Amino acid sequence: MDIILNILSLAGSLGLFLYGMKTISEGLEKFADYSLNVVQTKARQTRV
């Protein structure tokens, strides 16, 4: 019984970890996309 509980705990922990990594990755992608758009917009507005 102890082994089954340990395996289920490990699987749940791994699932939660992977979900967190996916969420952080999506957030970073959105932030990077926004930052890149701001830089590109400022670069286009600057006259040489």
Query: Gyration radius, to the nearest Å?
Result: 21 Å
Distance between the termini: 73 Å
Mean pLDDT across all residues, rounded? Answer: 92
What is the H/E order?
Answer: H
Helical percent range? Answer: over 70%
Give unreliable regions as ranges: none
Count the helices. How many?
Answer: 1
Q: Tell the overall outline.
A: rod-shaped
The assigned structural class equals mainly alpha
The biggest sheet amounts to: none
Percent of residues in beta strands: under 5%
Report on this structure.
The chain has a domain at 24-48. By secondary structure, it is mostly helical. The longest helix is centred in the middle third of the chain and has 44 residues, at 2-45. It has one helix spanning 2-45. The protein contains one helix and no strands. The mean pLDDT is 92.
Which SSEs are present, and which pair or pack?
Elements: H1 2-45
List keywords for this structure.
48 residues; mainly alpha; 0% strand
Can you summarize this structure?
The protein is mostly helical. The chain has one helix and no strands.
